[in-house]
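<goal> How does this chain fold?
<body> The protein record starts here
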Amino acid sequence: MSDDPQNLGGVWYGRYDALGYVDTNSFVARLDDDGGAISGTITEPNTSGGTGVRRAFISGTRSASGLRFVKQYDGGALAHAVRYLGRINSDATEISGTWIIVRHHGIFTMRREKFAQTDLEREEEVELVGPHDALFRR
């Protein structure tokens, strides 16, 4: 776990909208943040008439309260890249901004839960005790 309060590593839940279109698209992003170098994956529903999900890889940079990354779909009919530019809130739990590809652009927002170290330690303690023992502790 990083000591950097702006570290973006973790699971993010988001949505993006294309300006001029009614539909909102949701996604789940798994990010790694290595001192501001961002990498990861995005999974989203396939809204282009198919079934299942679409996957993309991301790479970019975090700098102060800014984030830039490129989302590269993993092939098929959507083998293109999308550029994102976002602003990170003060406790690094929300990022919002814009995206652009050749003829389309829009906005995005992504959020995550951040847990205090004491909450994580308490959860580990419950897991170590076991599910049956935890039922009787109060």
